[in-house]
Amino acid sequence: MIIKAIDKITNEMMAAKGNPAIIYIEENLRKKITSDEVAEKILQEGKTIAGAFGEMRKIARERAVNNVGFIPPEEGLEIIYKYFGIDDIEEQTEERKEPVNILDLL
């Protein structure tokens, strides 16, 4: 399922033909896809990177002063994660274990 989610967002990014905002969103979503739970949310029907970017634009327009809207990158990622419903999912990271000294096994 993780592979399918990564494929979905990568294909959407490739179709965007170099749009830096879509590339940025795809790169950050890819890092977040560490579990089937997150992958499932990314694969939801109708949820797209373009849709997430649209949410960011909507909020920026609401805050615009003199036709200029700004959202800091950290907040932008929060908006994207919330759009996909992954804002409250803990990232799964592999536990790092201490290396085993092979001599201890003898």
Report on the structure:
This protein is 58% helix and 0% strand. It is built from 5 helices and no strands. Helix 1 runs antiparallel to helix 2 (20-32) and helix 4 packs across helix 5. The mean pLDDT is 88.
- Helical segment tally? 5
- The tally of beta strands, per DSSP, is 0
Query: Are there runs of 5+ residues with pLDDT below 50, and where?
Result: none
- Tell me the count of domains: 1
Derived from helix and strand composition plus strand pairing, the structural class reads mainly alpha
**SSE series:** HHHHH
Determine the mean pLDDT. Answer: 88
**What is the subunit organization of this protein?**
single chain
Distance between the termini: 41 Å
Helix content: 55-70%
- Share of β-strand residues: under 5%
Main sheet properties: none
State the shape. Answer: elongated
* Rg from Cα: 18 Å
Condensed summary:
This protein is mostly helical and 106 residues long. Helix content is 58%, strand content 0%.
How would you describe this structure in keywords?
106 residues; 58% helix
What's the layout of helices and strands?
Blueprint: H1 2-15, H2 20-32, H3 36-42, H4 49-63, H5 73-84
